[in-house]
Specification:
Two copies of one chain form a homodimer. The first copy, chain A, is 30% helix and 22% strand. Chain A is an alpha/beta fold and 363 residues long. Chain A has two domains: 15-236, TIM Barrel (Alpha-Beta Barrel); 240-355, Lyase, Ornithine Decarboxylase, Chain A, domain 1. In chain A, helix 6 (145-156) crosses helix 7. The relative contact order of chain A is 0.16.
């Protein structure tokens, strides 16, 4: 099938670009002796997780047990759930999964330890535990080495939990490359304070898991980390391009849309809106909802659920009802989550049709 | 099953509130001799469409043929696709559907007429056509009576298309009630200019389809409309509450979430983010992503995909990992679209488990 034969909106991946991105980060991680455990939130497809593993990833990361279940059922068996599981249902689900795969979970509370401790006991399974620490993003993670030590010792009291080390998510380092070294230095000061406390306490840290896409190729600058968990690096998106950490040529995923209306002067309406792109806005001004690859003068100015509103009043391009455009979404992960299928293309041919089987697994 | 037994995040509808909302608008429409054709984008579930029809709706509205297919397959057979279908695939799909149901489509271009004209000819089916006009929202719709007349005459040249009248979407009337009458007067001036032109041309307008939730109970103030297409009125959401057109007691849908982390001072993290609520922001300042029903002092300040970030620094409430909260989402339609199931509850019991079968149908 040719790409032109897909009805729109269609989410399309350039396989050459994706494979190049996967290989490049794998080589970087290997050269820097870092384990690579990509976050599958970006693609939500076991076959792509297996591609990443075949290229050297040691395993993958997910956010919820429902996503882990999809991966395990498709034979991906080294998993980290980078999310504090505090409901009995989720802890039980994770403990069941741990009978079928190598499983690690990050957490930051005694409640999560208790839930996983009793879940693993009930199912007679083992889960590796990473204590999440906050390195400045202010989302999850304990703030002090003392709090982390308390949790580590609490983990060690549970017969079926294995304390493995520390985990952090530097979500606040989504910055232009030139601003990253100073921000990484601040993170390092925090990391070092934790390392010192654990060393004094005599507790080993075999795993320190960090990293995300914006700083992926600077991961060697973080003190003492053993593993990185970037997600978006294999596809990239408009927000990463605007940030300066990816080029347009590094973007593997686009949404093909059709111009549905040009009736209103200064506007072109495409057949994808918030149900196609998610409502994630651009981080930079002017606010926009994606980049139109055929027309840098068009501003993707508003979204209805099924309508993308392009402001073309400053564009010299002539828009025609029925023509197709390629849109680079702001945020690739939330875009993929809206859809049931991804199309992998090479030289204009649809080579792969992937069902996005881990889509929408919020539990 | 009790509501407490649902794992989180769970999207829950209070059936008493929903039924009251459905009945109230049905009674208003009947009293004002307006046909009610609710937009199913809000719930995406055939069973709820049938409830609306049982309470007096003449049919329902959808946005894409894929949604219409789900409705027809579940025996909902009077449909309007309120979207210009300009790709051959979608026009063909609509023409096929028209063999199994009463179907209307709105459009604003000769390209859409040509696509539907040849589709219906190929499938020997009939589709009723409404010309979309722009009454100030500047999304779709022709701007002048002359353009609408040209399209109406073009429709009349196609053997399998039936010209039915005009359609508009007053998306710019999402305003507080006190600002609505003046805005409706402006819309009326535009509507009247179209009515005059069609009268002079001797072309009847048996259908004029308008309306949306913010102005639903003021629909009688629009000149000459025969039908309204509100979607959200049966569930409502935080944006409608902030706008002043719905009360908190009118909101039927909430998302039940669990506090996953309180490790960072001033923050509580709940287990639903942009994959649970969509990224739709509040229309008003401060920007927030939903209202926490248990705590009016908490601000839902940011979203990650699986994390809802609550700023609780100005709250006197004590948050505890593992406790459950009810969140009223900003935008009910985009929230429902993220999920596979809705739970209908009454008196704390889960009475209905609905699969959201028309979710994600972007084509």
């Amino acid at each position: 099938m040719l790409i032109e034969e897909l009805d729109t909106p269609a989410v399309v991946i350039d396989l050459d670009v994706m494979e190049r991105n996967i290989a490049r980060l794998s080589q970087y991680a290997a050269a820097n002796h870092l384990n690579l455990r990509p976050h599958t939130k970006t693609h939500k497809i076991p076959d792509i997780a297996k591609l990443q593993i075949a290229e050297g990833a040691t395993g993958v990361t997910v956010a919820k047990p429902g996503e882990a279940r999809v991966m395990v059922d498709d034979d991906v068996r080294d998993l980290m759930i980078a999310y504090p599981l505090v409901t009995a249902a989720k802890a039980d689900h994770a403990a069941q999964l741990a009978r079928e795969c190598q499983l690690r979970v990050s957490l930051d509370s005694p409640e999560a330890i208790a839930a996983l401790g009793s879940g693993t006991l009930r199912h007679d399974s083992r889960i590796g535990i990473l204590i999440e620490i906050d390195t400045g993003f202010r989302r999850c993670g304990v703030e002090t080495p003392e709090a982390a030590l308390l949790l580590a010792r609490e983990v060690q009291r549970h017969s079926h939990l294995d304390f493995l080390g520390l985990m952090f998510y530097p979500g606040h380092l989504g910055k232009p490359p030139e601003e990253q070294p100073a921000a990484i230095a601040e993170v390092n000061a925090i990391l070092d304070s934790f390392y010192r406390a654990f060393q004094i306490a005599g507790i080993d840290l075999p795993v320190v898991s960090g990293g995300s896409t914006p700083t992926a190729f600077r991961s060697h600058l973080f003190n003492g980390i053993t593993e990185i968990r970037p997600g978006m690096y294999l596809l990239n998106d408009a927000n990463l391009v605007r940030m300066g950490v990816a080029g347009l040529d590094d973007c593997a995923l686009h949404v093909v849309v059709t111009v549905a209306s040009t009736a209103v002067p200064g506007r072109a309406i495409v057949d994808g809106g918030s149900k196609t792109f998610s409502s994630d806005r651009s981080r930079n001004e002017p606010v926009s909802y994606g980049m139109i690859r055929e027309d840098s003068q068009a501003i993707f100015v508003a979204l209805s659920e099924e309508h993308g509103h392009l402001d073309i009043s400053n564009s010299g391009r002539k828009y025609k009802v029925g023509e197709r455009l390629r849109v680079l979404p702001n945020h690739v992960c939330t875009t993929v989550n809206m859809h049931d299928y991804l199309y992998g293309v090479r030289n204009g041919e649809v080579e792969k049709v992937w069902e996005i089987t881990a889509r929408g697994k919020v539990q």
